[in-house]
Amino acid sequence: MSKIKRTTPSMVDITAKPEVYREATAQGQIKLNPNTIKLIKAGKIEKGDPLSTAKIAGTLAAKNTSGLIPLCHPLPITSVEIDTKTFNDMVEVKAVVKTTAKTGVEMEALVAAAMALLTIWDMTKQYEKDEQGQYPSTSIENIRVFKKIKAEKR
C-alpha cells in the first residue's frame, strides 16, 4: 500500500500560461412542490420573485468565487448569464460564465448555479415545509459542468 504524500495546500502556478478565451456552463435543478411552482409563475411568493433574485445571487457568486473557494484564482469575469426554466415540479438553472484568463471558469459557473438554486430554496422554503417543518420533497440535484470552452481565438 503506497502512502499519500501530504503537502501544504497551495494555488497552482499559472504564471507561464497564456490568457485565452474561456467559457463554462453549469446547470442544476431544484425539485419543488407543483403548488410552489404555480406560486412562482403567478408572482405570489411572499419574499418576491425567486427567479430574478436567483439571477442576481448567481452573478454575485460567480464574481466572488475566489473568496469562497480557498485555492481558486481570482479571475476577470467578463460575462455572467443566469437562466432559469420552470417545469411542473422543478426549476432548472443554467449559469454561463466567460473570461479571458490563464485558467478556466468552471468553478465560477458551478458556484453561480449552486447559489442561484440555494436562493430559490430560501425564497420558497415556507411553501415547501411539511407539518413538522421538514422538506420531504425539496432537493437540489445534478449540479454539474455542462460545457466548457477554451479557445485561442474567438
Question: How would you explain this protein's 3D organization?
Answer:
This protein has 154 residues and is of the alpha+beta class. It has a single domain (20-151), classed as 2-Layer Sandwich (Alpha-Beta Plaits). Helices cover 32% and strands 31% of the residues. The protein has 4 helices and 4 strands; from the N terminus they run βαααββαβ. The chain has helices at 34-42, 50-63, 65-68, 106-128; strands at 20-31, 77-86, 90-101, 139-151. A 4-stranded antiparallel sheet has the order 2-3-1-4, with helices on one face. α2 (50-63) packs antiparallel against α4 (106-128). The chain is elongated. The mean pLDDT is 94.
Q: How far is the N terminus from the C terminus?
A: 47 Å
- The H-level CATH homologous superfamily, spelled out, is Molybdopterin cofactor biosynthesis C (MoaC) domain
Helix content: 25-40%
How many DSSP H or I helices? 4
Mean model confidence by pLDDT: 94
Compute the number of structural domains: 1
> Would you list the SSEs in sequence order as H and E?
EHHHEEHE
Strand order of the largest sheet: 2-3-1-4
Rg, nearest Å? 18 Å
In short:
This protein is an alpha+beta fold and 154 residues long.
Descriptors for this entry?
154 residues; alpha+beta; 4-stranded antiparallel beta sheet; 31% strand
Summarize the topology.
Blueprint: E1 20-31, H1 34-42, H2 50-63, H3 65-68, E2 77-86, E3 90-101, H4 106-128, E4 139-151
Antiparallel strand pairs: 1-3, 1-4, 2-3
